[in-house]
Design brief:
3 strands; three-stranded antiparallel sheet; 98 residues; single chain; alpha+beta
């Protein structure tokens, strides 16, 4: 019996996957405008070092809203399966989230 919750499904043909860059990201900067959300993703290698920007992703406000809801849904599903993702209170306050 297979566990469908943990099944990985590829929707991309292998020749397309080979062309898609794969990055580990630990930093994101967001900018919003009337018709656009822009996120710059990068790597921070230390607390006093500027991030190395690797990717800029732009999307419409509508797409950004759907994306944010899908991300929340996936984080909630992850926490149900694996356990709560703990975040420091100071970080949440610094980001204005809590």
């Amino acid at each position: 019996m297979t566990d469908d919750k943990n099944k990985i499904v590829s929707i991309l043909p292998s020749e397309i996957k080979k062309q898609i860059p794969d990055y580990y990201i630990n930093n994101v900067t967001m900018v919003t405008a009337l018709y656009e959300f822009m996120m710059t993703f990068g790597i921070m290698s230390g607390p006093d070092i500027q991030p190395e920007h690797l990717l800029i992703m732009r999307m419409s406000p509508q797409h950004a809203k759907v994306f944010s809801k899908l991300l929340v849904k996936n984080v909630e599903e992850y926490e149900k399966r694996i356990g709560e993702i703990k975040l420091p209170d100071d970080l949440m306050k610094q980001l204005g989230i809590k």
